[in-house]
């Protein structure tokens, strides 16, 4: 990793039971950070404490539960004393797939609640610790919102809920970035391409269950599932993503949006005229 302004301290990462969140815990702890990671059950707490040792602190909370997020914030506040939190990484997320006509309303709601309501609640509640509370000492903290290289910028068929939630995260981040400028709290979007994590099991499950197999969307839906499987096979190693996120927190002037991906063609997809993309899909 290039030489960076050392900014080590304490970070809060949501959704650390698996995938990207768990990989980030490892990399941040190796770099000397103290990590508060959110999980939803005791089993994960024990597992992560065993894996990461004393620099890992579990916060048991669901990102959509305001009371639980408030309790978690109190725990972090007590730990920090009069110091600011270095960063909040809004990572927790799910992937819901399916044709709008048959998508259960509860699935759509869960997708948006997890990603955008969760990002809103965690941001709102942790903001004083990141430096809007001027009585705290230390540099203002940073907020990293995890979007998706494609889902955050273009709408893919049968991924309406996922793409809507990621577009919302991007818009939310832009408003927030401007709103928090006077406080020196930088808001960064990290929009990865594919990273091999359990989230991709969703695609496998959809194929096995063939939930929409008897609908008129069966054939194009399967085609999308197949192409998603190919994305998963071309994943960026987790350590590379972690390096980008650590850099975004430590560098003096971070970019507004990072798109770490193994497939460089994905970087230009958002700039292709919409009508051409319509035909491509
Ligand atoms: N993997 C990729 O290729 C990729 C690409 C672009 C963007 N992303 C984004 O990266 C983020 C992490 O995904 P991942 O690939 O690491 O998936 P993952 O392995 O399935 O991890 C998702 C994490 O989010 C947690 N979570 C889900 N709902 C939650 C809730 N309501 N409250 C608290 N935690 C909750 C899960 O906890 P439980 O174990 O308790 O369910 C889990 O720890 C997501 O926002 C995803 O959209 C992933």
Tell me what you see in this structure.
The chain is of the alpha/beta class and 281 residues long. It has a single domain, classed as Rossmann fold. The protein has 9 helices and 7 strands; from the N terminus they run βαβαβαβαβαβαααβα. A 7-stranded parallel beta sheet has the order 3-2-1-4-5-6-7, sandwiched between helices. Strand 5 (142-146), helix 5 (160-180) and strand 6 form a beta-alpha-beta unit. The longest helix has 28 residues, at 105-132. The two termini are 37 Å apart.
Q: TL;DR?
A:
The protein has 281 residues and is an alpha/beta fold. The chain contains nine helices and seven strands; from the N terminus they run βαβαβαβαβαβαααβα. It has a seven-stranded parallel β-sheet with strand order 3-2-1-4-5-6-7, with helices on both faces.
**Secondary-structure element series:** EHEHEHEHEHEHHHEH
Our measurement of the CA-to-CA distance between the termini, rounded to an integer number of angstroms, reads: 37 Å
Mean pLDDT: 95
CATH homologous superfamily heading: NAD(P)-binding Rossmann-like Domain
Number of domains: 1
CATH architecture: 3-Layer(aba) Sandwich
Contiguous low-pLDDT stretches (5 residues minimum) are 1-6
């Amino acid at each position: 990793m290039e030489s960076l302004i050392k900014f080590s301290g304490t970070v809060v990462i949501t959704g650390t039971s698996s995938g990207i969140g768990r990989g980030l815990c490892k990399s941040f702890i190796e770099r000397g950070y103290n990590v508060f990671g959110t999980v939803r059950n005791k089993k994960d707490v024990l597992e992560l404490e065993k894996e990461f040792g004393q620099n890992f602190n579990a916060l048991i909370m669901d990102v959509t539960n305001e009371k639980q997020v408030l309790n978690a914030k109190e725990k972090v506040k007590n730990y920090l004393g009069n110091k600011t939190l270095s960063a909040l990484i809004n990572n927790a997320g799910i992937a819901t797939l399916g044709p709008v006509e048959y998508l259960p309303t509860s699935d759509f709601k869960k997708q948006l609640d997890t990603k955008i309501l969760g990002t809103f609640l965690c941001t709102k509640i942790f903001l004083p610790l990141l430096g809007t509370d001027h009585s705290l000492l230390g540099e203002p903290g940073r907020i990293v919102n995890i979007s998706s290289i494609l889902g955050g910028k273009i709408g893919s068929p049968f991924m309406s809920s996922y793409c809507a939630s990621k577009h919302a995260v991007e818009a939310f981040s832009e408003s927030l970035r401007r709103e928090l400028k006077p406080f020196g709290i930088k808001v960064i979007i990290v929009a990865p391409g594919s990273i091999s994590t359990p989230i991709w099991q969703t695609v496998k499950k959809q194929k096995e269950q063939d939930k929409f197999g008897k609908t008129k969307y069966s054939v194009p839906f399967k085609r999308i599932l197949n192409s998603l499987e190919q994305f998963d096979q071309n994943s960026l190693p987790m350590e590379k993503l972690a390096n980008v996120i650590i850099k975004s927190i430590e560098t003096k002037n971070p970019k507004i949006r990072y798109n770490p991906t193994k497939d460089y063609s994905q970087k230009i997809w958002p700039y292709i005229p919409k009508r051409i993309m319509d035909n491509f899909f």
